[in-house]
Design brief:
The chain is an alpha+beta fold. It is 20% helix and 30% strand. Strands 3, 4, 21, 22 and 23 form a five-stranded antiparallel β-sheet that branches. Strands 5-6-7-8 form a four-stranded antiparallel β-sheet. Strands 9-10-11-12 form a four-stranded antiparallel β-sheet, with no helix packed on it. Strand 22 and strand 23 form a beta hairpin. The relative contact order is 0.12.
């Protein structure tokens, strides 16, 4: 290493790659230090300038200083003999290498320990999240302190729901405009009031006789889930499946459609000839949608697939016969891509639904401050025909569906024993709390839709495609 340093310095001082005569001498200075001296032939010059009078000399001094520093690092300030210098350097390098490898092993062990801690923390967070969902789905049992009853003249019986997660309707704002993405709403608004839960008792339906499918009524009973199929891969953890209640050629009413909604580019629409083929996993048709799907809010109606285009508030009508987009329209002021989703997340800001009255959109806006907004849509051109604003916060419920012009919400998506906890009637513009038992057998229900033709609820529960028989009556 010393020999290489001398050669490099020689080249540095000459300013060229040519090999010139040079000598290097190492001697004992007498005070425990080594003294180094070297001689280098200078290039041919007319005269030798005096010290300090030339920029070249200053550069030489600088390079010499660098050389001295380099030599000091090489010898480490120790007076070693010429014969032991090479072996000492090699031993030092080996020792440094062993130290680095030891530190590497220690760091790997530390990383493994931290990974285990992260896994423990993630499991604790999941347990806490499930506990929160369980507590949220429980009815309120807190008793008020004893006091003299007071009449609240601001609340009239039957005027609206009273839940801890309901919201009061804010005053109208002037000049409400919409940009490509509305700003996120902050939940600290004082316009929301925490109210005492009120549960409406319903009469038990007659479960022995046949279901009443002749007309409309209130939802009074939901059966145990019936499993039709389990998804094959992680892409099927959550999604949407449907049947067209008013199917058109070339597909009949028995045709079943499915979309796996996991992924950033969801475009495949799978078709099955009937429920038996769905259970067997043999699609008879696979369509590639021209624009990707956002989440699990799609539905099928009158020979068209209706869905929300990814990363936008744009609604699309995909015609199954022509296999092309037949209509598109932005849903005015609606939140999208995580502004007002259901409590399970999944970018479920816009949920399209079908019932006996037609096509609906379930969503929220900044003006509504997160409360669920309902809009009835023209199934041909997607124009908004009417809009209703409820008093229940969209992010506080797990899912929602429409039956006979009435909105119903599910309290929890993970609790195995939860309830359909709220109903809003668009005919009277009134809402109320209810308590109809509902089962999440597999504890991650990401889609609940009503099929008016089958008089059933269709759901997607943690890889499982399930359906529920329902009863309609009078509450």
């Amino acid at each position: 290493m010393r020999f290489l340093a001398v050669l490099c310095v020689s080249c540095l001082l000459m300013g060229t790659q040519a090999q010139s005569s040079a000598s290097f001498r190492r001697a004992n200075a007498g005070n425990g230090r080594c003294q180094y001296s070297f001689t280098v032939d200078s290039p041919t010059e007319a005269s030798c300038p005096s010290p300090g009078s030339s920029p070249e000399m200053e550069a030489l001094k600088s390079r010499l200083g660098l050389l001295e520093a380099l030599v000091t690092r090489l010898v480490g300030g120790e007076a070693l003999s010429e014969s032991s210098a090479g072996s000492g350097s090699q031993s030092g390098l080996q020792e440094a290498y062993n130290q680095v490898m030891g530190e590497k092993t220690q760091l790997e062990r530390e990383k493994q320990r931290l990974d285990r801690q992260v896994q423990v923390l993630q499991k604790s967070m999941e347990d806490l999240r499930q506990e929160v969902e369980r507590l949220r789905s429980r009815p309120c049992t807190q008793q008020p302190p004893p006091r003299v009853p007071e009449i609240d003249n601001s609340f009239k019986p039957g005027s609206g729901p009273a839940l801890s997660h309901l919201v009061s309707r804010p005053g109208n704002t002037q000049g409400d405009t919409s940009s490509l993405r509305d700003p996120a709403w902050h939940y600290s608004s004082p316009r929301y009031e925490e109210l005492t839960a009120v549960v409406t008792e319903v009469s038990a339906p007659n479960l022995d006789g046949p279901a009443d499918i002749s007309g409309c009524g209130d939802l009074v009973w939901v059966d145990q889930p019936e499993v039709h199929r389990k998804a094959d891969s992680i892409a099927g953890k959550y999604g949407v499946w449907m049947q067209d209640p008013e199917a058109k050629e070339p597909y009949g009413p028995e045709m079943v459609w499915r979309i796996d909604a996991v992924g950033s580019e969801v475009r495949q629409l799978f078709g099955y000839e009937n429920m038996d083929q769905l259970s067997r996993g043999f699609p008879t048709k696979v369509l590639l949608l021209p624009e990707s799907v956002e989440s699990t809010g799609a539905t099928m109606y009158r020979g068209s697939l209706y869905y929300q285009r990814r990363l936008s508030r744009t609604l699309l009508r995909y015609d199954l016969l022509s296999e092309s987009i037949a209509a598109r329209r932005d849903l005015p002021h609606s939140g999208f891509h995580g502004q007002f989703p259901y409590s399970w997340g999944g970018y479920t800001d816009i949920d399209l639904a079908i019932d006996e009255n037609g096509l609906w959109a379930i969503y929220s806006t900044n003006k509504a401050k997160g409360a669920i907004v309902l809009s009835q849509l023209d199934p041909h051109n997607l124009e908004v025909k009417g809009t209703w604003e409820t008093k229940i916060r969209k992010t506080s419920v797990a899912n929602a569906f429409m039956i006979c012009g009435k909105l119903y919400t599910v309290a929890s998506y993970t609790s195995p024993n939860t309830t359909v906890n709220y109903m809003y009637d668009t005919a009277t513009s009134q809402g109320k709390t209810i308590s109809v038992p509902f089962k999440n057998r597999y504890r991650y229900n990401s889609m609940v839709d009503y099929n008016p033709g089958q008089r059933k609820l269709y759901a997607w529960d943690n890889f499982y495609i399930v359906s529920y028989n329902v009863r309609l009556g009078k509450q």
